[in-house]
Every structure is written in structure tokens, then in C-alpha cells.
Design brief:
330 residues, 5-stranded parallel β-sheet, alpha/beta, 11 strands, Rossmann fold, 2 domains, 35% helix
């Protein structure tokens, strides 16, 4: 019996969170186009596999994760070495070495002697596209959009408010979110509260302070397909600097995002009128700190409510065809 040869494979390492995945989509699509005859495999957490495959930029997921933003082991890689290995995880030797241990025929990584310089002050999307350009791979930093989800939204047209974040330094106080929710509901808008796994207590606290009906409180962390549909059909997404903000950008949904320790120049949305990034300038903080960043706390509830209401008024006053055109903007 003749064995079918294994297709040539490109292994990309970016074993991080949802926001990291979505900001990496332009680079992943550049890789996909550069290697049309290869199977593109993304090393990433298994819990984000559905999100990764929905980008259309990869063919398969190689489960790999480590606590925090550490580099996972890739020792369980199956079959022959990858033809090409690409490090989109970071610029240190740890991620380079994890890929090099698989003995790929070609390795692209920042931590190589002939690699392009690390652009510390560039936006995440721009940084990785420039990295690929140095290797002759074209990638457009604005190639961000995701296909529309197949699932229906559980709350079409609602304002989605997501008070959680992976770290305390990026988490605006819950009582302030509650004040904004009350303002939006008083203006006649339906508001839906969401939270990720482990954030039920925070979401319920905000809901209680805001007088939010239980039917519009979505706890437990929605499955990705349902969450994607919720965001894609929302009128607005209000959140901190977290994965849901990037999902709003990917679906062309209007958003108001609150930044604290990290400037939106590094991780924020593209500069279009339907994405508002609120931030108070100052020295960079710790994006993984336990307590709310001082810059984040300088953002007031009135400022946030006004930004949300302005976005919603603009959405209502634009003709339907104009809204559709805006949604296609990267």
C-alpha cells in the first residue's frame, strides 16, 4: 500500500489570546497568500480553535498554550518537520527556540541574526506585517475583516457592554460601567452585558447596580460562534482593551474602547470615525497589573456615555446603504 506524502506545512506560532489572534489576522493572511500550496497550521490555544479557523487564514490548529504569555512547548508536533516555521509570538529566543527545535527547513523569527529590527513603538498589526515584508511576504495591516457569522445573534441591534478584561489594570470599575448602562437604557437603547469565563461575579454586580433585566445578562462566557454573532449584529460595543474590542473591529461594528496602561497607538482600532478609543496620555503602565491603571481611572462616566450616545446617534442618522459601506471599512 502506497502512503500519501504529507503536504508541505507552514507552522505559525502565536499561542496567545483572542485579541492577539485578531490583530495577527493581517499577518496570517499574508502568510496564507505567500504559501498557496502549503497547509498553514497555527499553534494556538485549543479554546480559540474555532476563532482561528473562522479567520479563513489557516487550515488547521496545533493545540499549544502556556500560562500567561509564556511560550508553550511544541514537542508534540506530529509528523515530519514543518517546511516553514514563522514566529509571530514575540521577539525573544524562547519562541524562536521552540520552533527551531522542530528543525524546519526555513525559520522566520525576530530573534535571528539576520532578522529585521523589532519595532517596539509600532502598532501590533503594523509590526508583524513589516516583519513579513522583510522576508518578501506582503501583508496589509488593514486586512482585518472576518466573514459574517453563520449563527443568528442572541440580541440583534443591542448595545453590547463587556466590563471584564484579562488583567485588573485594564478593567474600568464596574460601578462606572453600571452608570453608563443606566444612561444608555434611559436613552432607549437595549443593553446586553457579557463576560468571559470567570467573570460572572463582575457581570452580575454591574447588572445589579444598573437594574439590568436578567434576560440581558449573558454570563458564563458565550461560545465563540454565538459571541461573534452577538458582536457582528450589535449597534455598538463598549469594552476595555480586550479581545471583544478587536472582535468589534473585525466585524465592522461601532465601538468605544477604554485604554489605560497601553496606548491605542499600539493596540487600538484603525483610525476610522466608527471606532472611538478613549485614553489619557501618560507614561506606559503594566498591561498585566492587578489594579486599575491610573490613566484608565481618569476616564469619567460622562465622557464614556457621551461617546457611546454620539456613536449611536450617528448610526441612526446615516442611511442604510451608508452604514453598510462603513461596515466594510477596515
Amino acid at each position: 500500500m502506497t502512503r500519501t506524502p504529507h503536504p508541505p506545512r507552514v507552522l505559525v506560532l502565536r499561542a496567545l489570546g483572542l485579541g492577539d489572534l485578531l490583530t495577527g489576522v493581517p499577518a496570517l493572511r499574508g502568510i496564507r497568500r505567500a504559501f498557496p500550496g502549503h497547509q498553514v497550521v497555527l499553534a494556538m490555544p485549543q479554546g480559540l480553535a474555532e476563532a482561528g479557523l473562522c479567520t479563513g487564514a489557516i487550515d488547521a490548529v496545533f493545540p499549544a498554550e502556556a500560562p500567561g504569555r509564556a511560550v508553550p512547548s511544541l514537542a508534540h508536533w506530529p509528523g515530519p518537520p514543518p517546511d516553514v516555521a514563522v514566529d509571530l509570538h514575540g521577539n525573544g529566543p524562547e519562541s524562536r527556540d521552540a520552533l527551531a527545535a522542530l528543525h524546519p527547513r526555513r525559520l522566520l523569527a525576530h530573534a535571528l541574526p539576520d532578522a529585521p529590527p523589532w519595532r517596539a513603538h509600532a502598532h501590533e498589526r503594523d509590526r508583524w506585517c513589516a516583519f513579513l515584508h522583510a522576508y518578501g511576504i506582503q501583508a496589509d495591516p488593514l486586512d482585518l475583516r472576518l466573514p459574517h457569522p453563520a449563527l443568528p445573534s442572541p440580541a440583534p441591534g443591542a448595545v453590547v457592554v463587556h466590563p471584564g478584561a484579562a488583567s485588573g489594570s485594564r478593567r474600568w470599575p464596574g460601578e462606572r460601567f453600571a452608570a453608563v448602562v443606566r444612561c444608555l437604557r434611559a436613552a432607549g437603547h437595549r443593553v446586553v452585558l457579557t463576560g468571559g469565563p470567570g467573570e460572572d461575579a463582575l457581570v452580575r454586580s454591574v447588572a445589579e447596580r444598573a437594574g439590568q433585566p436578567a434576560s440581558d445578562v449573558l454570563t458564563g462566557g458565550l461560545p465563540y460562534g454565538e459571541l461573534s454573532a452577538l458582536v457582528a449584529e450589535a449597534s455598538l460595543v463598549l469594552s476595555g482593551d480586550t479581545g471583544l474590542a478587536h472582535l468589534a473591529v473585525a466585524h465592522g461594528t461601532r465601538s468605544v474602547t477604554l485604554f489605560g496602561p497601553v496606548s491605542p497607538r499600539l493596540w487600538g482600532p484603525p483610525p476610522t470615525p466608527h471606532h472611538v478609543a478613549l485614553w489619557k496620555p501618560g507614561p506606559p503602565g503594566d498591561p498585566h497589573g492587578r489594579t486599575p491603571d491610573t490613566r484608565l481611572l481618569r476616564i469619567g462616566t460622562g465622557e464614556v456615555a457621551a461617546a457611546c450616545l454620539t456613536q449611536l446617534r450617528q448610526l441612526r442618522t446615516r442611511p442604510a446603504h451608508t452604514r453598510a459601506e462603513v461596515a466594510r471599512v477596515h
